[in-house]
């Protein structure tokens, strides 16, 4: 490995933000096309250093490419 193989911190930050935007748009699209209702669940916790964390999961039903009904969960 040399310095050219390691991405700069600003490049990594931009890639993470771009990935977030793409995933956010995909999840919104999936939720808008869900069959019936959607549900949310959440979990809150702290680690040993008392840092807080929160996870939110979206649950919904949608049909796959073969028109079979599937239950989906997105974190």
From TrEMBL:
GO molecular function: zinc ion binding
Keywords carried by this UniProt record: Metal-binding, Nucleus, Zinc, Zinc-finger
Location(s) in or outside the cell: Nucleus
Sequence intervals crossing the membrane: none
InterPro entries per UniProt: ZnF_BED_domain_contain
Chief place where the protein resides: nucleus
GO cellular component, as recorded: nucleus
Top-level taxon of origin: Eukaryota
PANTHER family for the chain: ZINC FINGER BED DOMAIN-CONTAINING PROTEIN 39, ZINC FINGER BED DOMAIN-CONTAINING PROTEIN 4
Listed name of the protein: HAT C-terminal dimerisation domain-containing protein
Species: Wolfiporia cocos (strain MD-104) (Brown rot fungus)
């Amino acid at each position: 490995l040399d310095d050219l193989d390691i991405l700069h911190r600003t490049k990594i930050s931009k890639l993470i933000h771009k990935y977030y935007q793409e995933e956010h748009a995909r999840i919104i699209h999936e939720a808008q096309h869900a069959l019936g209702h959607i549900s949310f669940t959440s979990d809150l916790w702290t680690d040993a250093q008392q840092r807080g964390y929160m996870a939110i999961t979206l649950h919904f039903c949608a049909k796959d490419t073969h028109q079979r009904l599937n239950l989906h969960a997105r974190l």
